[in-house]
Structure formats: structure tokens, C-alpha cells
Write a structure and sequence with these properties.
This protein has about 575 residues and is an alpha+beta fold. It is built from 22 helices and ten strands. Helix 21 links the parallel strand 6 and strand 7.
Length: about 575
């Protein structure tokens, strides 16, 4: 952990872009330009995520618009984009199914399920507001990194399994493993014209980033692959005359195409506004199920949103620090508002947020402008949206799912340590075989079991053993004993922050007396080092000379060697 090149910040806060009234005008050109490019990415993703969730396509746009218009003025997170996320598809669709969603077979039942799920989303938003008031943002650090990545990878697998049949002009239903078993049959019975649109879209999504990495013109780097997909897929849909019901023959087989393979959006946005049905929390047959889904929405949405906001803070060119509780408050309020008019749940979305940074955004008003542009486009030219083939949106979601569950994710986790891959895979399988919450529980339990195998006694799981010594008037040392693991990190971090960032001291963390320091603690200590550096302070980690690292990765877990003597505590 290197302190030789600390990050130098402007001495005067006025030199740092902020989402203030003055910042609105000063950075107007940068923010509206970035907002425009994020809008191009967000439009198809909002439509596709809504469809994959069982909601009307316009529901995803409602969410992004409400997110951009509300959270801009509540959160102090300058570069995150709020909107619907692929990571919540599995939960929303699961809730829809539990409330009787039929996938179009019974429109009345589907609409009732939609309204009940909206009520769940509103209540989940209120729960998130409660989380923010109770300042639980810090508890997101409890969840091991391998478990979070395993959860996201499992969501990516589920998204791919559910959307691949749509790419080929088929429908998918059932549990993920059931869809996987039926996938070869669905592909052999593909609809050729729809499959052409879907496969060409996939080729663009996977091939265009590779092309951009080989060709360096600045204008090419700014073109989103999703926009290129629309430029190609919409004309293909018009060429195949998807807006009119008809049949065609191919290799002796007859196939049907029509409007059902295109996005459906209302001509009047106000007509699309749908109110929640809160009776789902009152009626005896549904209240328990509704409460379960509300808790799941709130927990998973909160974890994803906080992790995304923290990740974007780390790559913010100005190193501005968001208040996690304030950001969660903004998301919770916006979720209540979005659910009240028919929108999906939202989070701080990392892919669009990263695109926001890459396109030169300076303040949170970039999120505001992306919302304004979405609203204007859908309100003024809904006919253009109706020309988008569903297969193209499904391809975008397959690509998104692949990025969540790419082979690189497995490799990255394995490089930290083989035990991290075990936790990652256990979480992934747990989610695929059961559900998100149980799968995460399986991952956390696996982490505890591995710690026990490595000699961590249960009494050290939740309590750090710390001793504080004053070195001089500006430096304190924290001597840790026992074990420093993910489950006791929150009080450990609180002590470091209190002595260092709050009381303005340099801090030395001495880990010589620990029996085990897990990978999460190593990662979080590195993050804290950067935070101390940005504050003009120094955090130094010492005492690991007699610990054996589980791998060569800087975040690898470290266990005290047997010949180093017994650990303290």
C-alpha cells in the first residue's frame, strides 16, 4: 500500500465542481453533453429492463425520469445516474409472478400483478428512507466482496437465460435451470427474421467495443454500442415489416411476425400512469408475500445502490465523497415516487454512471439532463420507440448479463484467493437454485465456515480486539488482536475513522497480533488509505511480515504462520 504519491486536491472547495445553482450554469455545457450521451444509452436499457421485469416498457422511462429529476436535488452524489437496473430484474419479475403474472395470457391478471408490485416498490422505498434515517449505509460493508460479486454474477446468468430465447423470437418461462434445459429446443425452433435482428444486435454489442479498442478516434469512442444497435435493428424491423401481422416461409416452414415483436408504448404518457394497489398489504392471501418482496426489494436495492455509489466515488476525477445515507435517502424517496406513477424500482446504476464520467460530466445535473431528454423523447416521438424490435432490447440485456457474469469475473475472484472463488461459486449456485436472499445467505455462511477452518473462533466473528496507543501529538497506533474479518470490520473501521479522520490524526494499524486478516479487510484498508490521503492524513498498515498471504494479490487474505507464535486476543 503505497503512500508515495498522495492525491493532491485543490485547497479551495470552490475549485471543485458541485451541483449548486452556480454549478448548474458554470458546468452547463459539460453536463448537458454527458446527459445526452447517457440518454442514448439509457433509453433502450430502460425499455428492455422494464420488459424483462414484466412491466410495460414505459415504466423504465418513468423510473429514470423520476430518478433524474428528484435525486439530483436530494443526493450529493455528483456523478451517479439513477434509474432501473438489470440487477433488480430478477426480483421484480419474481414479485410479478408471485402475484399472478401470466406473461400476456391474461392481461387483466397481468395488470393486477403490476399494480400490486408497484405497491411493493413504494413500501420498499419507504423502508429505504427508514434505512437512511437510521444511517445504515455503513452496513453495506458487512457483505463480503465475493458474495456481492457472486450475487451479481447469478443475476447476470438469470438475465441471459431469460433473454436468449427472446433474441431468437421465442418466450422463456420457468426457473433458470429449467430455461437452460429447454434452451436448445427453443433455438432450434427460432423465428429466422427475429433471430437475424437479435444475432446482429449481439454481434454489434460484443464486436463494437473490440473495434473501439483497436481504433482510437475520439468521435468513435463516444458512440454507444446500444445506439448503433438501434440504428441497425430498427431498419431491419422495418425491412421485415414487423409493424404488420403476417406470415412468411423459410426453408419450407411458416413463421408469424407482427407488432408483438416490437416495443409497445402509449401515445399519451399520462394515460400510462398507473397507481399502486396497496390492498396487497391488507388482504390475508397476499400480505405476507408482499412484505417478503418489499424486504427483498429494499435490501438488494440498497446494497446494489450503495456499492455502485461507492464505486463511482472511487473513479470520480475530483475524488468527491458522497454521503451514502443521503444517497440512500434520495433513492428511497424517488422509489416511492416512481412506484406511485407506475415505474420500476431504481438504484444508483454503475454502467450509466461510468458512461457519465467518461463523457465529461462535472456535476449531478448531468443526471437531471439525461432525465429531461428521456422525458422529451418519449413524450414527443413515441412512434419511433414503437419501431424498436424486442429482440434488439433482449440482446442488450444478454450483453448486460454477460458483463455481470463474464469469465473475467471468475478469474478476478480466483486471483484474490481460491477460497474467494469457493464463496463466489457457492453464492452463484445458491441464488440459481433458490432465490437471491437465500443465495446471499449461503455465500455468507460459506465465508464463516472457511474462517472456522482457518482457525477463527466464533467469539472473534463480530468483535475486533483493539488497543490504542498515542505515538505523538499527531499519530496514534491501533494494535489489532484476534482476527480482522468482514463481520467485525464495521466497528474496526469506526475506530480508525474516529481517531483519524474525525480527530485529525495519522493512524498506524498494527496487524502483527492477528491470527487472520481476510481479503475484505485488506481491500477496505486500502480504500481507507486513499481516503486518509485525500484528507491530508496518513494511514499506515504494518505488522504483516509474519503472515502468509493466500495468493499474490494485494487484497489476498493473510494468516499468521505457525512459527510466529500464538496471536494475541
Amino acid at each position: 500500500m503505497n503512500h508515495s504519491q498522495p492525491i493532491v486536491m485543490p485547497a479551495d472547495d470552490s475549485g471543485i465542481p458541485r451541483g449548486t445553482p452556480a454549478g448548474f450554469f458554470r458546468y452547463f455545457r459539460d453536463d448537458i453533453t454527458s446527459g445526452f450521451f447517457v440518454f442514448l444509452i439509457a433509453l433502450p436499457l430502460c425499455l428492455g429492463i422494464a420488459l424483462a421485469s414484466g412491466f410495460p416498457p414505459v415504466a423504465g422511462v418513468f423510473t429514470a425520469v423520476v430518478g433524474g429529476l428528484l435525486t439530483t436535488f436530494i443526493s450529493n452524489s455528483e456523478l451517479t445516474i439513477k434509474g432501473p437496473a438489470a440487477g433488480l430484474i430478477v426480483i421484480v419479475f419474481g414479485a410479478m409472478q408471485s402475484f399472478g403474472f401470466t406473461g400476456g395470457t391474461d392481461p387483466a391478471a397481468d395488470f393486477a400483478a403490476y399494480r400490486m408490485t408497484l405497491a411493493v416498490a413504494c413500501v420498499a422505498g419507504l423502508v429505504q428512507v427508514g434505512f437512511a434515517v437510521l444511517r445504515v449505509g455503513k452496513f453495506s460493508e458487512f457483505f463480503p466482496t465475493a458474495v456481492v460479486h457472486g450475487m451479481l454474477a447469478s443475476i447476470g446468468c438469470i438475465i441471459m437465460l431469460k433473454q436468449l430465447p427472446v433474441v431468437f423470437g421465442q418466450k422463456a418461462s420457468g426457473e433458470p435451470l429449467e430455461i437452460l434445459r429447454e434452451l436448445p429446443e427453443k433455438i432450434t425452433h427460432l423465428n429466422p427474421e427475429i433471430a437475424v435482428i437479435g444475432l446482429v444486435s449481439l454481434a454489434i454489442l460484443f464486436g463494437f467495443p473490440f473495434l473501439k479498442s483497436r481504433l482510437r478516434p475520439a468521435w468513435l469512442q463516444r458512440i454507444p454500442a446500444q445506439l448503433l444497435v438501434l440504428v441497425v435493428a430498427v431498419p431491419l424491423g422495418i425491412w421485415f415489416d414487423l409493424s404488420h401481422e403476417h406470415t412468411y416461409s423459410f426453408l419450407g416452414h411458416e413463421y408469424r411476425v407482427g407488432k408483438s415483436f416490437l416495443v409497445t408504448v402509449p401515445g399519451n404518457l399520462l394515460a400510462a400512469v398507473t397507481t399502486p394497489d396497496f390492498r396487497v398489504f391488507i388482504e390475508s392471501a397476499t400480505w405476507l408475500t408482499a412484505c417478503w418482496w418489499a424486504v427483498l426489494f429494499a435490501l438488494v436495492g440498497t446494497i446494489e445502490s450503495l456499492l455502485s455509489a461507492k464505486a463511482i466515488d472511487l473513479v470520480d476525477p475530483w475524488k468527491r465523497k458522497s454521503s451514502m445515507d443521503r444517497d440512500l435517502l434520495a433513492v428511497g424517496v424517488a422509489n416511492v415516487a416512481a412506484g406511485a406513477i407506475g415505474g420500476l424500482p431504481m438504484i444508483s446504476e454503475i454502467v450509466r454512471s461510468k458512461a457519465n464520467i467518461d463523457n465529461g460530466a462535472q456535476t449531478r445535473f448531468a443526471d437531471f439532463w439525461h432525465a429531461i431528454l428521456l422525458l422529451a423523447f418519449v413524450a414527443l416521438v413515441p412512434g419511433l420507440i414503437h419501431e424498436i424490435p424486442l429482440a434488439a432490447l433482449a440482446a442488450m440485456l444478454v450483453y448486460t448479463g454477460f458483463r455481470l457474469a463474464s469469465p473475467r469475473e471468475f478469474i478476478n475472484v480466483f486471483e484474490i484467493g481460491a477460497e474467494q472463488l469457493v464463496i463466489f461459486v457457492a453464492t452463484l449456485i445458491g441464488v440459481l437454485a433458490t432465490d437471491l436472499l437465500i443465495g446471499v445467505g449461503v455465500g455468507v455462511a460459506t465465508k464463516f465456515i472457511i474462517h472456522v477452518i482457518n482457525g477463527v473462533p466464533p467469539r472473534e466473528f463480530f468483535k475486533p480486539f483493539l488497543d490504542v496507543t498515542e505515538i505523538d501529538e499527531s499519530t496514534v497506533q491501533i494494535d489489532a488482536a484476534g482476527s480482522a474479518v468482514f463481520s467485525n470490520w464495521i466497528p474496526f473501521r469506526r475506530q480508525i475513522e474516529q481517531l483519524g479522520l474525525v480527530q485529525r490524526n495519522n493512524v498506524i494499524v498494527n496487524l502483527a497480533g492477528t491470527r487472520l486478516v481476510d481479503s475484505n479487510v485488506m481491500e477496505k484498508l486500502e480504500e481507507l488509505e486513499a481516503e486518509f490521503s485525500r484528507s491530508g492524513l496518513r494511514l499506515e498498515v504494518v505488522g504483516l511480515e509474519e503472515h502468509r498471504a493466500f495468493s499474490g494479490h494485494p487484497h489476498a487474505a493473510r494468516r499468521r504462520t505457525a512459527d510466529a507464535g500464538p496471536p494475541k486476543g
